[in-house]
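Subject — a protein and its fold

Tokens — whole-number codes for backbone shape
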Amino acid sequence: MMMRDPVGTTLRIVATVSWVFVGACLIVIAVSGRTIGKPAWWAADADLPWGPIFIAVPFVAPVAAMIALWRAARVAPIVQLISVALLTAIAVIDIRATPAVAATQLIVAGCAALVTFASLAARPSRYRGRAGGVIPSPSTETGAAQ
């Protein structure tokens, strides 16, 4: 018996593409922030020895979400929620120093949250019947004439 996929393949593809776009947005935020002279805290000092580590911090979220989507579908929505929380925390750190960059990061985190909510909504309910159908209405359970 084949086990049913907790997150459908179509949703996985859409969510993966969305998380790729989140990563692309983070790259754009880093480049544009450095260009205008107000980079995010994680993109500020790429020349320092710990610079590449800081630059990698926000990209952990989309990579972890994509890996979870394809390798651990049951926990993918939880990993996505943690990724959204990480992106939000990274943005909150920048609010005082670079509010425009932080606002952009919060918008990206909000978009990632929408993808996460879609993943949560697409999970099959444990209250559905074994065949995957909908819960029968009371009139069909009692055998009432129609």
